[in-house]
Amino acid sequence: ALFESIKTDALPTPTPTALTQDGHAIHLGANIASTAELKSLSNIHWHQIDLLRTELLFLGQSVLPDAARQQTTYQTFARAMHPEAITYRLFDFGSDKQLGKSEEANPALGWRGIRSGMRDPKLYQEQLTALLNVAQNAPIKLLLPMVNQREELIWFLELLEPLLTQFKLPRPQLGIMVETPACAWNLANMADLIDFISIGSNDLNQYLFGADRLDSQLMTLYPPLNLGLLSQLKQITTVAKQHKLPIGLCGELGGDIKALPILLGLGINRLSMPVPQLPHICDAITKFELSKCRSLLEQALKCHTNQELDNLVSEFLQTHS
Ligand code: PEP
Ligand code: MG
Fold first, then answer.
1. Among the atoms of ligand 1, which is closest to the Cα of residue 95?
2. Shortest CA distance to 183 belongs to which of 137, 152, 211, 142?
3. Which runs of consecutive H residues, i.e. helices, occur in the chain?
4. In angstroms, how far is CA 120 from the centroid of its own chain?
5. Any idea where the PEP-utilising enzyme C-terminal domain is (predicted)?
6. 3-state DSSP helix/strand/coil % of the chain, to nearest 5
7. Per-residue pLDDT for 170 more than 70?
8. Is the omega angle on the peptide bond into residue 83 within 30 degrees of 0, that is, cis?
9. For residue 43, how far is its CA from the centre of ligand 1 (angstroms)?
10. How many angstroms separate the CA atoms of 60 and 98, rounded?
11. Closest residue to atom 9 of ligand 1, CA basis
């Protein structure tokens, strides 16, 4: 019923791509975590979900629905975005996204993302069953949260392969969130097993600085765009380019105008962000030249303080608004 209410054939064909002044295409997708957000996406006629936070769809429920009921939920999103592939992030329960009450002393450092899947394989098995059922009629991409090292990817592939055989489906595009420094440093060693990366700047910043992402006061010490993160992003994008991996970013930074020219300069050409940011970021991109963003990045990498970096970017934005 929801599908009927949000999708009509009368909507214009959306173009979730923005062109820089010098003609480079930047793909823009949405971060979605509810049917309400799906509706707001449809309202602006945008047809791209590059991060579906699947765990948040079920967070309010005391028990996780079985595969059949999960499938019904995913189908709603798949139908609304058809024929575009949705990027389904596999469950990232734990840390700030607890299904029940956490018994852990440090949930952010505990059982979350793919680790919870490895501890309780039924979690991902059921979810994959639901998603592969969806994949019979709609294109899907899979995105794994909190991957740190190759062993975790191998565990996942061993779980996925027999299911693909059972469903007689080819392997969907598979990506990993790059959201820990370990993942960044191990990226070269995982590149042959994946099709794309999506940088999770929220967690990457949290784990880079050992600073709780939910503590806004603490976060004032480490502004969203800071030199430590910039240096890590430079390393990630360099490795990804060496291995010809498409590079996306889906943390809050993807919707941050201030970070935008730097992200483009780094060669990130797929940004996923909260729905309200999409029109603004789309508009801003058309005012930039990629070549100038690259020069800005070179200057940014020479800054010594976050304030210097901030001033540099502010000046750039003033001349490109
Ligand atoms: C991130 O960590 O940047 C991210 C996009 O994932 P989430 O915010 O859902 O943890
Ligand atoms: Mg994350």
1. 10
2. 152
3. 2-6, 35-43, 54-57, 67-81, 114-119, 121-134, 150-167, 181-186, 201-209, 216-219, 227-242, 260-265, 278-285, 290-300, 306-319
4. 23
5. 17-287
6. 50, 15, 35
7. yes
8. yes
9. 24
10. 10
11. 53
Task: Give distance in angstroms: CA of 11 to centre of ligand 2.
Answer: 32
pLDDT digits 0-9 by tens, 37-85 = 999 999 999 999 999 999 999 987 878 999 999 999 999 999 999 999 9
CB-based pocket (< 6 A), ligand 1: 53, 92, 179, 200-203, 250-251
Token pair for 195: 């099709």
Q: What is the dihedral of CA 169, 171, 172, 174, to 10 degrees?
A: 160
Q: Which residues contact 215 (CB under 8 A, 6 or more apart)?
A: none
Which among 53, 97, 178, 197 is the best mutation to test ligand 1's pocket, defined by most ligand atoms within 8 Å of the CB?
53
Whole-number Å distance between alpha carbons of 242 and 25: 20
Distance 53 CA to ligand 1 centre (A): 9
